[in-house]
Request: fold
Amino acid sequence: MTIERRLAHSGFTLTRDYPVPVERVWDAFADERQKRAWWGAGDTIEPREWAFAFRVGGRDVAEGQFHGGALSRYEATYTDIVEHVRIVTTYDMWLDGIHMSTSVSTIEFEPIEEGTRFTHVEHGVFFDQFWADGPNREKGSRGLLDALGAYLA
Reply:
């Protein structure tokens, strides 16, 4: 089978207000125990490999098998961390061992009167047969922010 070689670019911004202090939202990313409690797909995925190194130059890995479905792999490198202000990563995704995308992701934490304004901005490039997957990435990111909100509640 011949694979059509093509690229597609996709970007999105998601903003949520969480009714807890910045430090609480920050810790959900910076503390491994807390991040494991909400990160991922919950009951829909069987966790496989996990690595966590929250520092500039550190790498995170999250791999899991969807029940009756694909094997998903996420590998991120932290490129900038400013405590309680921002986290910047570059990350790659694979689906069933096929490299599907590379992204740059920024997360900003802003104190507001009601708690924390959380802003996630992402720019990705999607490869070959995954060229149209940008809307699914945004949907998946919305799901992660929903899981974070439930965890913080």
In short: The chain has a mean pLDDT of 91. Residues 7-152 form a domain with the Alpha-D-Glucose-1,6-Bisphosphate; Chain A, domain 4 fold (CATH 3.30.530.20).
